[in-house]
Amino acid sequence: MSAQSRPSERLKKLFDRRKCWMLAELAEALDYAGITVRRLLNQIGYFRSYTDNGKWYTFRDSPQFNREGIWHHKSIGFSKRGTLTSTINYLVGRSPAGLSAREIGQKLEHPCHAVLTNLHKAGALDRIKIQGEFRYLSTAQPMNHQQRDLAAAAQMPSSSTSLSTQAAVFVLVEYIKHPELSFQEIADSLLQQRKLTLSPESIRCFFQEHDLKKTSDA
Prior knowledge:
Blueprint: H1 7-17, E1 21-22, H2 23-30, H3 34-44, E2 46-48, E3 56-59, E4 70-73, E5 76-79, H4 84-93, E6 99-100, H5 101-108, H6 113-121, E7 126-130, E8 133-137, H7 143-153, H8 165-177, H9 183-194, H10 200-209
Antiparallel strand pairs: 1-3, 2-3, 4-5, 6-8, 7-8
């Protein structure tokens, strides 16, 4: 049997034609039973969508994942972590102050309120209400404690600093990581790493209003 006529090679060629296929479509195109197609998919490697109840498949080398491990082909979402619940747990677990359903939905480009509610009821995620909006948190310690503290500290952006909740969280995270940085250095670091433009004075005011102590005020 030539290499090109092997079932696994025929399957790869289908993914060359189209990035995403449903199992039934692959079975019809190859003229194989679904169980055989699943075996072939395992051989070549694949990702299964976290959208559309996981009905879409793509070849392992197709996705160009972003830094959070998410890739979209048109409206179909794929994740390095596999399922929707695994992906949500990963995103929440690495967020310094947890994430709201709105923020998670933006990252995934997929609504997930019902899934988040179920994960919380099952004890897989913790949550707190901040300014009328639930923020979902990791249940693992000490991450849960850190997320609660940061979310609480960032919930009251003042009119003088005009720091959004997200900006306040980034400032606090940068301060925790590098307490020796000046306000100017914190602003420079956030601009470089996160493309977030903040003035040193707004950061200074934020620290004063929340009674945060710094070793350097330069």
